[in-house]
Design the sequence.
């Protein structure tokens, strides 16, 4: 029995540990593992190869993905999905694991509805925005990368009595900015889920400045598109010299944390065990310390919502 793995969308730390677990566990269970290189693009172009133990030696600690990834426009067209399926058939691959986020799960849903293939999507994105999953592969390392950056920024910010407005990734989900603001003690946090109250924030911060506050750390989630606006507001209203930093793709850097390595293994082992027994059209999710499978139809129609406790903790940073 042949089984394949591929990555899709933005890379995230934890993909390599997952790939290693995939190869090791497939062989352990008597399956022939295959790599599909470069995501759905590579599947269309037949970039498929038998996976060997030596391919995954020494990759556990590496960020990114050794089998590469892509965002595929062609996969939206039936003609190319047909080509992708024909390629899988050539190798006798009947089971497929995709490491990716919402866009990839949606593509996988369509593919598994059209063709006779058993699939499981493993949440792998720094955004942590998969419905019913409190964790996605890559978010822990990304949060630590942001934390390190904020520790450094705070040094210069407090030394030079400046405000720093730091933009995080996350698409339209404010998780990265919110958790970073809470764990690094920011004064302001802007996320798509909460409307900022400039008036009361101004009053509060002016009072703090009067009482000695001489620097400000502000986190902005990219989805708000308000980084410029906030920087200008601070400069104008709080009369504090302000600098902007867009952390960008650095947030995908670093080496997978211990937690990502553990979770990568768990996600893969559960997924392979399920695929061995049943025909799947699902994604695996992790919530309340438990793994479960949700069908792709459901997951692709639902949006993840930010935990209420997190929202509550942010209150003093938005008003
Ligand atoms: O979905 C992961 C993510 O890193 C988002 O946070 C970000 O908006 C996007 O990917 C960036 O995509 P790209 O690497 O294609 O520029």
Sequence:
């Amino acid at each position: 029995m042949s089984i394949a793995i591929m990555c899709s969308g933005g890379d995230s730390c934890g993909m390599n540990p997952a790939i290693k677990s995939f190869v090791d566990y497939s062989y352990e269970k008597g399956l022939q593992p295959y790599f599909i290189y470069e995501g759905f693009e590579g599947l269309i172009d037949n970039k498929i190869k038998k996976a060997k133990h030596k391919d995954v030696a020494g990759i556990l600690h590496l960020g990114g993905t050794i089998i590469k990834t892509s965002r595929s426009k062609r996969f939206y067209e039936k003609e190319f999905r047909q080509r992708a399926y024909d390629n899988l058939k050539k190798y006798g691959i009947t089971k497929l694991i995709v490491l990716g986020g919402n866009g990839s799960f949606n593509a996988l849903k369509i593919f598994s509805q059209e063709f006779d293939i058993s699939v499981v999507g493993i949440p792998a994105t720094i955004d942590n925005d998969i419905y019913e999953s409190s964790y996605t592969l890559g978010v822990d390392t990304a949060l630590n990368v942001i934390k390190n950056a904020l520790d450094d920024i705070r040094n210069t910010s407090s030394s030079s009595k400046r405000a720093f407005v730091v933009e995080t990734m996350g698409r339209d989900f404010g998780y990265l900015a919110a958790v970073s603001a809470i764990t690094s003690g920011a004064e302001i946090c802007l996320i798509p889920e909460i409307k900022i109250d400039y008036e009361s924030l101004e009053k509060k911060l002016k009072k703090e400045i009067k009482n000695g506050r001489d620097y400000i750390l502000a986190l902005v989630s990219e989805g708000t598109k308000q980084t410029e606006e906030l920087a200008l507001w601070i400069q104008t209203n709080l009369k504090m010299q302000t600098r902007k930093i867009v952390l960008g793709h650095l947030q995908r850097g670093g080496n997978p944390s211990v937690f990502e390595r553990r979770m990568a293994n768990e996600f893969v082992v559960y997924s392979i065990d399920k695929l061995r027994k049943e025909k799947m059209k699902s994604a695996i999710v992790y919530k309340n310390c438990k793994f479960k499978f949700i069908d792709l139809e459901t997951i692709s129609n639902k949006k993840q919502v930010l935990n209420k406790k997190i929202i509550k903790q942010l209150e003093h940073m938005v008003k």
In short: The first strand starts at residue 2 and ends at 7. The mean pLDDT is 97. DSSP finds eleven helices and eleven strands in the chain. Residues 10, 101, 125-127, 169-171, 222 surround 6-O-phosphono-beta-D-fructofuranose (CB under 6 Å).
